[in-house]
Design brief:
alpha+beta
Length: 96
């Protein structure tokens, strides 16, 4: 579980990264979960977006992806979300 201070720090880091997960009208597929899992392993911090055609709120999709990838939802603002998962072997982000 990350603290609010750590959450704020991760949000600030996420400002400079590109959105790589896109949830569209197909919703959450096994390919999307694999893509999220691989990205979290490589980067630890991932930004995603839910398109209007998906028909659900970003918070719901972010929570489902986080559960299936064992990551944490850092933030959900509008249609964008940020996920974090610490890489125990080679951590890239040192939390305060």
């Amino acid at each position: 579980m990350i603290t609010s201070k750590q959450r704020a720090y991760l949000r600030s880091l996420a400002n400079s990264i590109d959105t790589i997960l896109i949830v569209g009208k197909g919703g959450i597929s096994t390919e999307l979960i694999k893509q999220a899992s691989d990205a979290l392993l490589a980067r630890e911090l991932v930004k995603g977006k839910v398109l209007e055609t998906a028909g659900e709120e970003a918070k719901k999709f972010a929570t489902i992806i986080a559960q299936q990838t064992s990551s944490e939802v850092v933030s959900v603002i509008g249609s964008k979300f940020i996920l974090y998962k610490k890489n125990s072997k080679t951590p890239k982000i040192i939390l305060p």
